[in-house]
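idk why but the lab printer keeps eating my pages so im just putting this in chat instead. protein + zinc ion:
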Amino acid sequence: MKLKHQFVGFIPDDIQEGVIYISLEYKSVIHKCACGCGREVNTPLHPTGWKLLYDGETISLKPSVGNWSFDCKSHYWITKSEIKWSSEWSDEVIHEARKNEESERREYYRNKDSLKFKEETKIQVVSQAETKNRGWVQKIFFWK
Ligand SMILES: [Zn+2]
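predcted complex ->
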């Protein structure tokens, strides 16, 4: 699938399928998920975020677009305006991420049962587990 790109001042309310909207002023890049699920994907341009490469005809976006928070969990590259699906973001990877989350949760409840934490401690443990997990997901996300 080839995306059309459109340089705009403001990102329009009505985002068309197959078009990538680029607002340099707002450092915003928005397109509809390439799987066709209709979700809007925002990939803000930032030194630690996405970078846009424009060669005068086509655009490329780096790093890859990983919509792991959407139901479709699609992951693809936009290279020279082409969608290139990534095989890296396989069910296995998602399964691993879930398993990781699951074992942290189990660990937490084991500790809770044996130690009888105070209310505050419990909250702290939960937020630590969440941060750790997010870090892990982000690592995969930015690896490629
Ligand atoms: Zn999708």
